[in-house]
Amino acid sequence: MATTTKIEPRALVRASGGPRYAVALAVDALGTGMLRPFLLLYGVTVLRLSAPATGIAMTAGVVVGLVCMPAVGRWLDRGARSTVVAASMLVRVLGVALLLAAPAGHVWLFSTAALFLGIGNQAWPVAHAALVATVAHGRERDAALAGGRALRNAGLGAGALLATACLAGGATALQALAAVTGLAYLGAAALAWSVRLRTHPAAHPDRADGPAPRMRALLAANVIYVFCLNVPEIALPLVLVTQMHASPVWSAAIFVANTVLVVTLQVPVTVLVSRFSRRTVLALAGVVIAASYLGFLAATSLGHGWSAAAVAAVSVVCTIGEIVYAGSATALVTALAPAHLLGRALARFQLSTGFGLAVSPAVITALASRGSAPLWGSLAAATLLSASAVATEKGSRHQRIAT
Questions:
Q1: N or C: which end of the chain has fewer CB within 10 A?
Q2: pLDDT by 10s per residue, the chain, length 403
Q3: Architecture of the structural domain at 207-402
Q4: CATH topology of 11-199 equal to that of 207-402?
Q5: Residues 314-339, buried b or exposed e (16+ Cβ, 10 A)?
Q6: What is the pTM of this model?
Q7: How far is the first Cα of the chain from the last one, in angstroms, to the nearest whole number?
Q8: Is residue 169 a contact partner of residue 41, using CB atoms and an 8 Å limit?
Q9: Where are the domains of the chain?
Q10: CB-based contacts of 387: which residues, under 8 Å, 6+ apart?
Q11: Residue 102 per-residue DSSP state
């Protein structure tokens, strides 16, 4: 089995789509980081909409974005690559333009803007993974996907910090942030389109390999796995502030630490585990994440003086599990799917990811209202069951060799 034993920055950039594409990713992530965390505030503060109406519009945008995934997958399978990436950025430019044009109290324009932003946000991961899978192969592709995630998290974090610093300016500052975000998306789209990468489906020799793998266990397990992505943002702040009555500083520190660890460790950890099969690594990620959930359960039972610090320590384990999961899940899908059906396979995977991210806040808050044991115990049990399903799912001989 081929493994990657060292990281060469130039080779990693080349495998990720080249320097221009890397700059496009960074600019796009910076813009997303500036707007996405404060879109709700924009609707409430600038457009003077009610919080429920704003939240419903944002949720509808996510749902419509997921509904569009099959079409994105088919477009990719016709050979498009950089064009789809650029389109995912341009549709968000339209969303930002509608935000800026919407008058106060106009919920429909905000809803339409959220719809376009949702489509772009859901389409981008699929298009990006397909582009990287076309440029790079084998374990180099895994490292390139990990590098893209690290770069994107760095851009998201930097954008969020810039936006936070500007919030004191009120509604005017939020409008300025939206305008800058739109310009960032436009610049990123131009850079991505300039890469001019596409494939020719008829040239793929594996067209006779049959339909795309069903991956039922993998897709079902992924819905549970992605809960870990909302643990630093939703579960831990909820537990720390409302149940443990700890300072909000702990939640902020955990979120910052999570971002820093992902940025610095995503590529090295992905390279480190490349000596094992992707399926084994993904199952291991579930075990690590489940262990961290049990760790959170133990930490919350400690005395008031130690529990917050213990939760922060366990969050590092959860982040390691997240890093291992993120470095192996998409890579496993790209290894399983025949080249001519890669787009549709990635679209199905994004559907499971988006669904998990959409339902996890409601599930987490509902479980948390019943106490720490139902929350962390249920999450640990579901994640262990998912890891077992991933490890035991059977495929064709070709698929087993590929993974």
A1: N
A2: 445 445 566 666 776 677 889 889 999 999 888 887 788 888 888 899 898 888 888 888 888 889 999 999 999 999 999 999 999 999 999 999 999 999 998 899 999 999 999 999 999 999 999 999 998 888 889 999 999 999 999 998 888 888 888 777 788 888 888 999 999 999 999 999 998 888 876 555 544 445 556 788 999 999 999 999 999 988 999 899 888 888 888 988 999 999 999 999 999 999 999 999 999 999 999 999 999 999 999 999 886 778 999 999 999 999 999 999 999 999 999 999 998 899 999 999 999 999 999 999 999 999 998 999 999 999 999 999 999 999 998 754 445 545 6
A3: Up-down Bundle (1.20)
A4: yes
A5: bbebbbbbbbbbbbbbbbbbbbbbbb
A6: 0.89
A7: 10
A8: no
A9: 11-199, 207-402
A10: 221, 282, 283, 284, 285, 286, 287, 290
A11: P
- Tell me which amino acid residue 128 is: H
Residue with tokens 């192969």, as numbered in its chain: 137
